[in-house]
Amino acid sequence: MQAPPVKLPIYYLRQVAQTISDMGVDVHAWLARSQLQESQLDDTNQTLTFATFRSLVLDALAMTQEPALSLLVGSRLRLNTHGVLGYAAMNCGTLQQAIEVLERYSLLRTPLVKLQHQMVNGELRVMVVENFPLGDIRRVMLEAALLGVKNVVDFLAAGARPITQVVFACAPPTYAPLAVKIFQCEVAYDQPWTGFVLPLEAASRPLHPIDPNTYQEALMICQRALDKIIQDETLAMRVRRVLLERSTAFPSLQLTARLFHMTPRTLHRNLLTEGSSYRSILEDVRHTLAIEHLKTDRLSIQEIAFALGYSDMANFRRAFKRWEGLAPSDFRLQALSGSVAPRAPGSEQDNEAGYENHGPDNLVQMRLDPGEVAKEVAHSDDAPHP
Question: Which end of the chain is least crowded, N or C, by CB within 10 Å?
């Protein structure tokens, strides 16, 4: 698995810098480790690679020696730190509408995590989901993002604090009591998902009179910004997003090509120029989802393999051991006990192999050469799609 091929906006590094500065850390020295300067923190056009962002997070943790740093940073993520997205949320008529706006346009602030919501038994569940395997910064990102969203909800609710419970799909950290104080509600660990819960009645209650024109204008601004981001995305990123959005039944190469108004051969050729392929992207998405499923005991390992499109359990076990160095059962045992973290993206073991599809759903490792790559589209219909 390669490091996420994304450009990360620098928006929230200012809050990290302010937090560690208050703790006595030399911000100049912290940034210098990643060849950055403090003046760049105010440049909204500045972007980072995932590797640089990860290094900044890990350096901040090491230099502060504060395991709860994510919560301290998340406490600074108020409505006015979210730019036009915060402006759009502020002009929503209900909390549910605001959450839907945050979900739809979360890519404006970060490509690493996203929001998903669902209604269950009179409750609105809002989940924070990673778009890429975040490895050793996963807990930091999810805690900070979750607290940031909760701060927005609390602000819009005028201090009513409608969120009744915060949940994490991980073991409780040493600072769990502090998390309860900061979130100001029940916090549960070892849960099947990460997010928060609020009563549907509170989510649908009108907040305040809104100007429909202002709301529509805010949405138009967000949509224009989102369209620009999507236009600037690489094809590989767009394909990955499509696979994640259709993870209950991954579209084939042919169907994916059709979604982009391309022939399968053209899609393959364009991905190849970016150093990628449909097959390697699918493998990475499967890795991401396998980790998420195995962190809970909701599905058996056989059910996970089937959900990811593997009809042969042996192939799933082989693939997962290649990804994480552990059998799926061993990874689950350690994940549920809180003693394992997913392998960091871009590790040497993850980058050294290519993949071939043997049968419609199963992946086994092999060395990739141009002849084998061509198999991906050898049987595809090259006629233009209508």
Answer: C
Q: What are 332-346's pLDDT values in tens digits?
A: 988 877 665 555 544
Model-wide pTM > 0.70: yes
> Which pair of tokens denotes residue 341?
């973290």
Q: Are residues 40 and 131 in the same domain?
A: no
Amino acid, single-letter form, for residue 204 = S
Q: Tens digits of per-residue pLDDT, 191-238? A: 989 999 999 999 999 998 888 899 999 999 999 999 888 887 889 888
263 and 362 co-located in one domain: yes
Pair 28, 152 in one domain: no
**49, part of any domain:** yes
If you write DSSP's letter for every residue of 203-271 in order, what string do you get? HHS--S---HHHHHHHHHHHHHHHHHHHHHS-HHHHHHHHHHHTTTSPPPHHHHHHHTT--HHHHHHHH
| C-alpha distances in Å from residue 103, one per residue of 6, 96, 98, 149, 152 | 19, 10, 9, 10, 13
Predicted confidence at residue 348, as pLDDT, reads: 40
Of 66, 81, 112, the position where a domain reaches its end is: 66
From 44, 66, 88, the end of a domain falls on 66
Residue 124 confidence (pLDDT): 96
| Separation of alpha carbons 111 and 9, rounded Å | 9
Structural contact between residues 8 and 112, judged by C-beta atoms closer than 8 angstroms: yes
Q: Which DSSP string corresponds to 266-326?
A: HHHHHHHHTT--HHHHHHHHHHHHHHHHHTSSSS-HHHHHHHTT-S-HHHHHHHHHHHHSS
Q: How far is CA 171 from CA 138, 175, 300, in A?
A: 13, 11, 20
Phi and psi dihedrals of 141, rounded to 5? -65, -45
Residues 209 and 318 occupy one common structural domain? no
Q: Which residues contact 68 (CB under 8 A, 6 or more apart)?
A: 173, 175, 178, 179
| CA nearest to 196, candidates 182, 186, 208, 211 | 186
pLDDT for position 341: 57
| DSSP conformational letter for 133 | -
Geometric angle at alpha carbon 88, from 85 and 89, rounded to 5°: 90
Q: Which domain holds residue 48?
A: 1-66
Which parts of the chain sit beneath pLDDT 50? 1, 345-386
